[in-house]
Amino acid sequence: MASGIAIDDECKVLYDKFQTGEKAFRCITFRVSPDMKRVIPDDEQWQVKKDAGICQREDTKNAMKVLCDQLVNGDDKSNAQPRWVLFNFEFETAVDKRPTDKSIFIKWCPETSTIKNRMVFTTSTKGLIDYLNMSATNVQADSIDEIKEVLGKLESGNLK
Fold it and tell me: How far, in Å, CA of 111 to CA of 102, rounded?
């Protein structure tokens, strides 16, 4: 339970598909339900599957573009709704150019969110992380520029 709100079992099912077994997703997102009583997986269009038909680095860039477009150009729900985004970022190391990957956990809480949404979101984050038993790098982002800054750090190998 997170801040008095339950975490839907489907969150764990989706996380397992992202992290283990299938590893079918490049990006998964969670949000607080409209009634503010549960943490739930976001709608299907927010779950970005990996594209095995192209190189993983290109797939990573494409998925991040899709995510950023949704965060900026989505409906009112997406523009004002805090979200937890788990993203698998594949890149080449700067030093020896070997392929590697890193999962990052983006806490997206835009300034356009209501105070109540921000409070429930913030107090529910630790509960979600604990429930999923997650060990990804945590990043807070309130704007697309902050997400792009994280991407730049990842590409250069400077995000720890």
Answer: 27
The Cα 148–Cα 160 span in angstroms is 16
Give the residue-averaged pLDDT of 64-84: 77
pTM of the entire structure?
0.85
> What six digits make up the tokens of 36?
């503010």
- Number of C-alpha atoms within 13 angstroms, CB side, residue 73? 6
| Mean pLDDT within 30-38 | 91
Distance (Å, rounded) from C-alpha 51 to C-alpha 139? 25
